[in-house]
Amino acid sequence: MTLDDTDADLIARVAALDQLALRTLIGRHQVRLYRFLMRLVRDEAMAEELTNEVFMEVWRNASRYEGRSQVGTWLLSIGRNRAISRLRKRREFSWDEDAAAEIVDDDDDPEVTAQKRDKAAALRRCLEGLSNEHREIVDLVYYQEKSVGEVAEIVGIPENTVKTRLFYARKKLSELMQTQGIDRGWP
What we know:
Elements: H1 7-15, H2 19-41, H3 44-61, H4 71-93, H5 97-101, H6 110-128, H7 132-143, H8 148-155, H9 159-179
Helix pairs in contact: 1-2, 2-3, 2-4, 3-4, 7-9, 8-9
């Protein structure tokens, strides 16, 4: 390797996994790339990290360099794209006090929470009033979120039997809930 090697020669050697060629390329372009990225992101640590990422990408993708632009231009292009992507992500995750203050709390108030808890406890008592076969079907369909076909496979019965048991389980559960004074909806 000589100092007269062109950047394109270095890229070709990097594509052949020549680490010395990569070090030479870094030596030639690191400062200019870092300064360019620093002007874009205005953060020393991020600019340094992005510079390293660009050279890692060159190491991994040197064989894709087509020579349509100068190597320096290619490096700046990679760096610019990564910087823009990073700035977008940072903007997406930045905290905005004004926006945070406008977020509406959709959680239930303590009274509604207590009503739901009471209704859930009554529903569990009603579920205990079902036969084992019906309780099992209700559990698999509503709590385990299994399809009728999956329930049939799990329990080892035909799908039509699952549908029939589910129909009668819902009917019985509705009757038990009425006797407990529970309406079917949530408050």
